Amino acid sequence: MLGRVNHIAIAVPDLAAAVASYRDVLGARVTEPQALPQHGVTVVFVELPNTKVELLEPLGDASPIAAFLQKAPGGGMHHVCYEVDDILAARDRLAAGGARVLGDGNPKIGAHGKPVLFLHPKDFFGTLIELEEV
Amino acid sequence: MLGRVNHIAIAVPDLAAAVASYRDVLGARVTEPQALPQHGVTVVFVELPNTKVELLEPLGDASPIAAFLQKAPGGGMHHVCYEVDDILAARDRLAAGGARVLGDGNPKIGAHGKPVLFLHPKDFFGTLIELEEV
């Protein structure tokens, strides 16, 4: 069921500083910041040859990463996103396996305009997993 | 400087349970467990089309992931490993950029038999970064 790792998401308190670090110190290619107010984040992608790192900074008062950064003010790895062919089939397989889908259990349109689901980190050893239909 | 994401490492308290979850619930291909006593871990790789997830369980009394699991008993994302062409050039670039290399600053032979460095997570927004020469 799991396909490619679409991205590894890292929550950061200061996107400009994180961009400078990945671009100038680590020598990676980074995209321009993209504000996604409907998702409560500003995003920069670090483009690697085989996948991406998504740097996330909170945007607005109801950012979904605000609570994470309260617990880890310096930032940290937030989730791993895997591609799936069929997100409804994925949801049904997960339900049959006893894994909990966050929210109402139905796919939402994610930050990249594709249907996504998030899985409960307690069901996957502390890792928040996003599934994205591609 | 940064090349491919070689792997995403996840520390888990129970490798057999994690293997069952990734294989049976998420439908991924996993390798046989490999005990690496000199590195203090038992490892399973989850093989995705473009990269790998490395599931790590502590092995022995001096496991480098024991402290992590004391803070996060259920497990969690532990580090991201990027490939580099020349690890000594990488080390010099990082030093010039003010980033701290863990240990004595010199590459060690990592769990895959290749020279590796680990970078201080406080210099990279809470993410422990491993660089591996390939």
From TrEMBL, chains A, B:
EC top class, as a word: isomerase
A single GO BP: L-methylmalonyl-CoA metabolic process
Keywords: Cobalt, Isomerase, Metal-binding
Pfam families per record: Glyoxalase_4
Documented EC number(s): 5.1.99.1
Domain VOC span(s) in chain numbering: 4-134
Record field: catalytic activity: (R)-methylmalonyl-CoA = (S)-methylmalonyl-CoA
InterPro entries recorded: Glyas_Bleomycin-R_OHBP_Dase, MeMalonyl-CoA_epimerase, MMCE/EMCE_epimerase, VOC_core
UniProt xrefs under CDD domains: MMCE (cd07249)
Keyword Metal-binding included in the entry's annotation: yes
GO molecular function: metal ion binding; methylmalonyl-CoA epimerase activity
Protein family per UniProt: Belongs to the methylmalonyl-CoA epimerase family.
NCBIfam families per record: metmalonyl_epim
PANTHER family found in the cross-reference section: METHYLMALONYL-COA EPIMERASE, METHYLMALONYL-COA EPIMERASE, MITOCHONDRIAL
UniProt-recorded name of the protein: methylmalonyl-CoA epimerase
Organism of origin: Rhizobium subbaraonis
